[in-house]
Write a structure and sequence with these properties.
- The chain is α/β, with parallel strands linked by helices.
- The chain has 2 domains: about 180 residues, HAD superfamily/HAD-like (Rossmann fold, 3-Layer(aba) Sandwich); about 240 residues, no CATH class.
- It has 18 helices and 16 strands.
- The strands form 5 sheets. A 5-stranded parallel beta sheet has the order 3-2-1-6-7, sandwiched between helices. A 5-stranded mixed beta sheet has the order 8-15-14-9-12, sandwiched between helices.
- Strand 2, helix 8 and strand 3 form a beta-alpha-beta unit.
- It is globular.
- The relative contact order is 0.11.
- GO terms for molecular function: glycerol-3-phosphate 2-O-acyltransferase activity; phosphatase activity.
- Keywords: Acyltransferase, Membrane, Transferase, Transmembrane, Transmembrane helix.
- It comes from Actinidia deliciosa.
- It is a multi-pass membrane protein.
- InterPro entries: HAD_RAM2/GPAT1-8 (IPR056462), Plipid/glycerol_acylTrfase (IPR002123).
Length: about 475
């Protein structure tokens, strides 16, 4: 069996410095105080590295980032937050070499718990060799790592027995001891490697991830975030007040002054009063953030109600549009939606939860059963610092974090109302109609359709029955 052993930092990942990943653990598992403290100590960590004591700098970063945290919380961050940032940093040439071997081992200088889920689920490694956090009897990390025991070479020797790894991937300057055990060695850039029978073209994509930060917090980015937060809170307050106080027609113009921009494509349908129909239009939207229905109402310049599932009470209070809370009991929700549609337009996001990556989750078919007046609306957004919606933490902060971004750009694309032959009235099944709308919206945005549901997302983020593959709808 052909085998490969690779360093993670500096080989499979382009960046050899794991500091920003410790910053992510500090921010997502603890908060701003630990995040700021670790940033303050970064010059000390860097000085230790320059003095040839990088091991002490690494131990200091591990201590500050993890001491006092529950290991379960570190595991949660490693499962729900870190994979997205690791994936963005993957060296695809190194990955192609790594994936072409049958047995794959990854060596990391960070605690194993931080990387194991990513390298096994997304890079398809068989084993991870890294340091182990010391945990007390209460399940809290002490910030220390286990000393003594087998070296990296010794642990790799145990994995391979009398066999030598066929290939070692690592940085030439790292002088990793395990590289001397390999029959061949390769260093960046890896594109000159001669092995061409690549079996896997790309790592398993990250579809579901969580956390507040949009960008990986390198020291310079982390400084910008900390300096911006006081201004961001003030800006969020102003933006929220604008949405609550001003009339709908004025909001797009005033919001632009405070860095919010909406790009509209297509022609929205006229308001219910301008038509002779007995029911309103059902706007079927992609679900990127909790602000999708609010932005749509601003574009339409009228307060269109939106159905909701699990937003916080604070989000409902701050919402400038009416909300209709559903129960997830099918017949009850159907009656609620019919009742609102009989009075006017309604917004629904049939994915049932947000998805940040360029994928669409499976659409619930309930909307297709209730009306034929369906207008698909493709929505996407761009922000700089903070994500608007998270599954972890206090969801009441979702609208505040969204409005704290320096610039907000939303793109809203109205598609044509579904023709009669594409609705249930023509004999099509509700699921066929839902799949058709999903494909229309995915094609408009350049996204991929999946069969994943809201339950799949939360199972993945919670670590239950993690998803290791995704399937596209035809």
């Amino acid at each position: 069996m052909e085998s490969v052993v690779s360093e993670l930092e500096g080989a499979l990942l382009r960046n050899p410095d794991p500091f920003s990943y410790f910053m992510l653990v500090a921010f997502e598992a603890s908060g701003l105080i630990r995040f700021a403290l670790l940033l303050i100590l970064w010059p000390v960590i860097r000085l230790l590295e320059l003095c040839g004591m990088s091991n002490y700098g690494l131990k200091l970063a591990i201590f500050v980032a993890t001491v006092g945290l529950r290991v379960s919380e570190i595991e949660s961050v490693a499962r729900a937050v870190l994979p997205k940032f690791y994936m963005d940093d993957v060296d695809m040439e190194a990955w192609r070499v790594f994936s072409s071997y049958e047995k794959r081992v990854v060596v990391t200088k960070t605690p194993r718990v931080m990387v194991e889920m990513f390298v096994k689920e997304h890079l398809r490694a068989d084993h991870v060799v890294g340091s182990e956090l010391v945990v007390n009897r209460f399940g809290l990390a002490t910030g220390l790592i286990e000393e003594g025991g087998d070296s990296v070479s010794g642990r790799i020797g145990e994995l391979f027995g009398d066999d030598q790894p066929c290939m070692g991937l690592g940085r030439a300057e790292s002088r990793s001891s395990f590289l001397s055990m390999c029959k061949e060695k390769s260093y960046p850039p890896f594109f000159n490697h001669q092995k061409k029978d690549y079996k896997l073209l790309r790592p398993l994509p990250v579809i579901f991830h969580d956390g507040r930060l949009v960008k990986r917090p390198t020291p310079s980015t982390a400084i910008l975030i900390l300096l911006w937060i006081p201004l961001g809170i003030l800006l969020a307050t102003i933006r929220i007040l604008i949405g609550l106080i001003l009339p709908m027609w004025a909001i797009p113009y005033v919001s632009r002054i405070f860095g919010a921009k909406v790009i509209v494509n297509g022609k929205p349908p006229p308001p219910p009063a301008a038509t002779n129909c007995n029911s309103g239009v059902l706007f079927v939207c992609t679900h990127r953030t909790l602000m999708d229905p609010v932005v749509l109402s601003h574009v339409l310049q009228r307060r269109v109600p939106a159905v909701t599932y699990s937003i916080s009470r604070i989000s409902e209070i701050l919402s400038p549009i009416p909300t209709v809370r559903l129960t997830r009991i099918r017949h009850v929700d159907a009656e609620k939606i019919k009742r609102v549609l009989s009075k006017g337009d309604l917004v629904v996001c049939p994915e049932g939860t947000t998805c940040r990556e360029p994928f669409l989750l499976r659409f619930s078919a309930l909307f297709a059963e209730l009306t034929d007046r369906i207008v698909p609306v493709a929505m996407n957004y761009r922000v700089g610092f903070f994500h608007a919606t998270t599954a972890r933490g206090w969801k009441g902060l979702d609208p505040i974090f969204f409005c704290m971004n320096p610039r907000l750009v939303y793109e809203v694309t109205f598609l044509n109302q579904l023709p009669h032959e594409a609705t249930c009235s023509s004999g099509k099944s509700p699921q066929d109609v839902a799949n058709y709308v999903q494909r229309l919206l995915a094609a408009t945005l350049g996204f991929e359709c999946t069969n994943f549901t809201r339950k799949d997302k939360y199972r993945t983020l919670a670590g239950n029955d993690g998803i290791v593959a995704y399937s596209a709808k035809c």
